[in-house]
Each structure stands twice: as C-alpha cells, then as structure tokens.
C-alpha cells in the first residue's frame, strides 16, 4: 500500500500542534527598498521553530507609492507620507498587543549602493531619515541598512528555494524539514539597478571568496553568489533609450565633450564622444544622465574614470 513520507509517529505527535500555533503567532515586517520602489511585507510564523528555523508565511504586501528611497536624497521630508500609507495598513493586520514585539527591518539594495558610491553623505542622510521615522512607530525597529550585492543574491536564493519547497515537506497540514537535504535550484534576480546570480556549485572549494554559508532547518548550504552592479532592468531600459537617441545625432562636424555617470565610472571606456555642431542644441538640451548613457551604449568594458567639465 501507499506509505506516507512522514513517519506515522510524527504525524500523530503533531495532530494537536496547529491549535497551539494558531493562537501564538509571531510577526515580522520587512521593507525591501529597491532602486525603483519600496515594498512592505508582513510575515507570520508560529512561536515554535522547525530545526531552529521558523516556518514563515507572508500575510500582507504593500507597494509604497513613489520611487525608491535613493530618489529622496534632496527631498527627505517627502519620505514619510508614502510610508505612512502602507504602515497604517500594516497596523490593522497585526494585533495591537503584538506591535511592540513585532520586529521591523529595512534592507536597501543597488539604488542605495550606487548613491553611497556617488554621495555617501546623502546616502547616510536617507538612512537616518528612515530610522527617525520608524523610531516613532509602535514596532520594534531593528535598523535600516544597505545590504551588499552578495547578501541580496543569497536572500533571493533562499526565497526561491523556500517557495519551491526545497527546505520543507508537507506532513498532513504541517511543514517539516526533510530527513536529508533536498537538491536546490539556482536563482537569477533581475533588479532595477543590479542583477544577482546564486546557486550551490558542484565543487564547494571553487570561488570561496564568492561563497556564503547559511544554515536553514538543520542543514548548512554553501551558496555561490555574485552581483552585477549597473546591470538591472532600469539600466537596460536606459541603454535602449540611449541607443534610440543616438541615431538622431549627426556624425558630421566635430564637437568635443565629456560625460559623467556613476555606472559609467565602472563599466565604460568611451569617456569622450564627438558629435556634429549642427546637433549641439539638441545634445545639450538632454539631461546629463541621458547624455552619459549615449556613451554607455558604446561600452568597451575597460576601467576609466570620467569628469564632465560642465559639472563643477
């Protein structure tokens, strides 16, 4: 006959657990501060853990209106209102008596990583403004930080494999850790300003400098992860825009200029371009980032720094 994966004794032992867990939930709030937007997530899990790791479920999601937090560097006062809209909804979904015990974490990704490289003071001021905002909230604020590219890749890998059921198996109405580690899958995370690839390599000794170890549900995983900064979706759209604009510029008569861009500083070698004087008014009517991107599409992947003489 059919034999269930879970031992019968284990199934019997957990029959009454759902009632206990149902009335003793814990909550956590995570803000994913991406380059193009911020998303608020509410998670719930039973107080008891499975092999030292919580069995987590997402109970609420709210997209904060407006752009990513890095866009508020020159208008910090405008940060609070869009956050309020989501936080007020969050407060309604978590019992009031649990607010003070509900942890809040904010992790910022490539948008803030680029801002920190370009203007560290501005990046710190954005984070400080967020910290001040959450300290006035009823929750247990645990901090706002800019996570590294490898950390972002690892978190994406964990999320993908958790959703695909590679860490826990279903036993009746409950989830339990596998009796032995299950094969995992790789993850490719295409963000707004960066892309991450993460997987467990066949040879765990290769690329040790790019490998992070994480322990989940009683098992350790050595995950290779790499972040490609400036290779996100939004940057790809800008390159496409640049390629479309480039065909409008005349190749005749010479006009010399230089451009500057935080991403160009890492990836491009075409710091100087020449365009026709007949197109000068069109060219300088474009915003500086767009002018910089016209250089980016001719990328030769060498390491050169730039300075636009029109920018003091």
From TrEMBL:
<dbReference type="GO" id="GO:0005886">
    <property type="term" value="C:plasma membrane"/>
</dbReference>
<dbReference type="GO" id="GO:0017111">
    <property type="term" value="F:ribonucleoside triphosphate phosphatase activity"/>
</dbReference>
<dbReference type="Pfam" id="PF01150">
    <property type="entry name" value="GDA1_CD39"/>
</dbReference>
<keyword id="KW-0547">Nucleotide-binding</keyword>
<dbReference type="GO" id="GO:0045134">
    <property type="term" value="F:UDP phosphatase activity"/>
</dbReference>
<feature type="binding site">
    <location>
        <begin position="192"/>
        <end position="196"/>
    </location>
    <ligand>
        <name>ATP</name>
    </ligand>
</feature>
<keyword id="KW-0067">ATP-binding</keyword>
<comment type="similarity">
    <text>Belongs to the GDA1/CD39 NTPase family.</text>
</comment>
<dbReference type="GO" id="GO:0004382">
    <property type="term" value="F:GDP phosphatase activity"/>
</dbReference>
<dbReference type="InterPro" id="IPR000407">
    <property type="entry name" value="GDA1_CD39_NTPase"/>
</dbReference>
<feature type="active site" description="Proton acceptor">
    <location>
        <position position="152"/>
    </location>
</feature>
<dbReference type="GO" id="GO:0005524">
    <property type="term" value="F:ATP binding"/>
</dbReference>
<dbReference type="GO" id="GO:0009134">
    <property type="term" value="P:nucleoside diphosphate catabolic process"/>
</dbReference>
<keyword id="KW-0378">Hydrolase</keyword>
<protein>
    <submittedName>
        <fullName>Ectonucleoside triphosphate diphosphohydrolase 3</fullName>
    </submittedName>
</protein>
């Amino acid at each position: 006959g059919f034999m269930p994966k879970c031992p019968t004794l284990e199934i019997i032992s957990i029959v009454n657990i759902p009632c206990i867990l149902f009335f003793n939930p814990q909550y956590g709030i995570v803000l994913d501060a991406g380059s193009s937007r911020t998303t608020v997530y509410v998670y719930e899990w039973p107080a008891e853990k499975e092999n030292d790791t919580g069995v987590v479920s997402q109970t609420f999601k709210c997209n904060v209106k407006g752009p990513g937090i890095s866009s508020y560097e020159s208008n910090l006062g405008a940060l609070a209102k869009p956050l309020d809209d989501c936080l007020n909804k969050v407060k309604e979904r978590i019992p009031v008596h649990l607010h003070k015990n509900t942890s809040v974490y904010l992790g910022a990704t490539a948008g803030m990583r680029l801002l920190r490289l370009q203007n560290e003071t501005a990046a710190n001021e954005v984070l400080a403004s967020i910290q001040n905002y959450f300290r006035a909230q009823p929750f247990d604020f645990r901090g706002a930080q800019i996570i590294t590219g490898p950390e972002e890749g690892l978190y994406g890998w964990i999320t993908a494999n958790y959703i695909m059921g590679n860490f826990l198996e279903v036993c009746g109405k409950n989830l339990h850790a596998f009796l032995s580690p299950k094969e995992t899958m790789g993850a490719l995370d295409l963000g707004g300003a960066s892309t991450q690839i993460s997987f467990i390599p066949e040879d765990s000794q290769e690329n040790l400098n790019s490998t992070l170890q994480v322990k989940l549900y009683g098992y350790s995983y050595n995950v290779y992860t790499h972040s490609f900064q400036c290779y996100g979706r939004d940057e790809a759209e800008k390159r496409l825009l640049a390629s479309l604009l480039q065909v409008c510029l005349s190749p005749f008569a010479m006009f010399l200029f230089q451009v500057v861009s935080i991403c160009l500083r890492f990836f491009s070698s075409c710091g100087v371009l020449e365009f026709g004087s007949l197109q000068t008014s069109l060219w300088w009517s474009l915003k500086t980032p767009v002018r910089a991107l016209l250089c980016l599409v001719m990328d030769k992947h060498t390491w050169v720094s730039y300075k636009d003489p029109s920018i003091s």
